[in-house]
Amino acid sequence: AQKVTQAQTEISVVEKEDVTLDCVYETRDTTYYLFWYKQPPSGELVFLIRRNSFDEQNEISGRYSWNFQKSTSSFNFTITASQVVDSAVYFCALSEPGGLGGKLIFGQGTELSVKP
Amino acid sequence: DAGITQSPRYKITETGRQVTLMCHQTWSHSYMFWYRQDLGHGLRLIYYSAAADITDKGEVPDGYVVSRSKTENFPLTLESATRSQTSVYFCATLQETGMANEKLFFGSGTQLSVL
To answer: pLDDT tens for residues B37-57?
Structure first.
């Protein structure tokens, strides 16, 4: 069965600290897609990144970076020098069998609080 | 240039009543989706649609009905609302720019309370 686990329910850090959000997934597919979405206090869901299973390169986008490791079925997300605006709930998600990018299995979410 | 519009933003109803949540897109994306968000569960897929008049069940379809007579609209109906359907409902569309670049875009959500 497909499953996404975000073991950290809540994380609290002080501004400028680095923080890593963990994501572990389970799938029998050989081709799949992983995603991270951000949900700020306003409630909307914002797409952050999509990673294809055949591309294990890590990605960096400004203060954000993602570490994809197929060997451990993990897709962790690191925010460097966190800011108050990073406070949000972050969801990791996995595409369902067949790879349709809209049929996603979400983790439970990690609520990140960045304090000034 | 709203992209995806959900209405209403907030809704309070009573057990047993029929409720329809609206979703409208301006992009003409083929695929549309309904998700519900509950604490401890993240988001779960209720129904999705590949095109007008083509719909299919997701993970948690019981108690919901959808239709898609026009590409731009994808309403979700709770035929007889129950308290367990109190949730935040998100509509989404899929931007298809090749298999490797599909992205899901979400509406602002409808917060539904069933009393």
So the answer is: 998 889 999 999 999 999 999
Sign of CA dihedral B107, B108, B110, B111: positive
Find the CB nearest A44 among B40, B103, B106. B106
- At B1, the pLDDT band (50, 70, 90 cuts) reads low
pLDDT tier for residue B62 given thresholds of 50, 70 and 90: very high
pLDDT value at B7 more than 90 = yes
Q: For residue B57, list its beta bridge partners.
A: B47
CB-CB neighbors (< 8 A) of B108 in chain A: 43-44
Name which of A100, A103, A108 is nearest B41 (Cβ-Cβ).
A108
State pLDDT tens for residues A57-80. 788 889 999 999 999 999 999 999
What sign has the CA pseudo-torsion A101, A106, A107, A112? positive
Q: CB contact, 8 Å: B58 with chain A?
A: yes
Enumerate long-range contacts of B72-76, CB under 8 Å, 24 or more apart: B72/B24, B72/B25, B72/B26, B72/B28, B73/B22, B73/B23, B73/B24, B73/B25, B74/B23, B74/B25, B74/B32, B74/B34, B74/B49, B75/B20, B75/B21, B75/B22, B75/B23, B76/B20, B76/B21, B76/B23, B76/B34, B76/B46, B76/B47
